[in-house]
Amino acid sequence: MSAGEDGPFTIGEAARVSGVKVPTIRYYESIGLLPRPPRTEGGRRAYDGADLRRLAFIRHSRELGFEIEAIRTLLHLQDDPDQSCAAADAIARHRLEEVERRIAGLTALKVELERMIAGCAHGRVDQCRVIETLADHDLCRHDHHAPATAVPTH
């Protein structure tokens, strides 16, 4: 890297170092998760080490499945380190509950798929338990429906 440890970094260097793609960095700036950096005389963004640490924080939070608004709150908390961490704990606890619900739903789904496969006679399709169960949800023994969750692209 040609820039010093604390910068300035171009957006391309910031992307490479942080592991966050250039369009995503621009998106984070547009929604206020990352402050808009100063510009060089040539009009290029000039990020510093604090920006890269913030991008790493956001990236890691996203990898753990935190939603943008939760990350926004966590960043505000991080920016004021003398306050109680109760709010951060509550956000993490809420995320853990979401993960536990998802695991329970996936476990029920696994059990249902195992039951369908075990009931298959490995004969003809007109006798196939997999096809029969998929065609009629009433044949399922478990409530394995989880609400559809949009996967953010950023």
Task: Report a brief summary of the structure.
This protein is mainly α. 55% of the residues lie in helices and 0% in strands. The longest helix is centred in the middle third of the chain and has 33 residues, at 86-118.
Please report which band the strand proportion falls in: under 5%, 5-15%, 15-25%, 25-35%, 35-45% or over 45%. Answer: under 5%
Uncertain segments are: 146-153
User: Mean of the pLDDT scores?
Assistant: 85
Summarize the helix and strand pattern as letters. Answer: HHHHHH
Q: Briefly note the structural class of the backbone.
A: mainly alpha
Oligomer, anyone?
Answer: single chain
Query: Major beta sheet, specifics?
Result: none
Question: Quick one: overall form?
Answer: elongated
Q: Count all strands and give the number.
A: 0
Helix content: 40-55%
Measured between the Cα atoms of the first and last residue, the distance is 25 Å
Q: Over the alpha carbons, how many angstroms does the gyration radius reach? A: 23 Å
Helix count, per DSSP? 6
What would the keywords be for this entry?
mainly alpha, 6 helices, 154 residues
Word description of this protein:
- The protein has 154 residues and is mostly helical.
- Helix content is 55%, strand content 0%.
- The chain has helices spanning 11-18, 22-30, 49-63, 68-79, 86-118, 129-135.
- Residues 146-153 have low confidence and may be disordered.
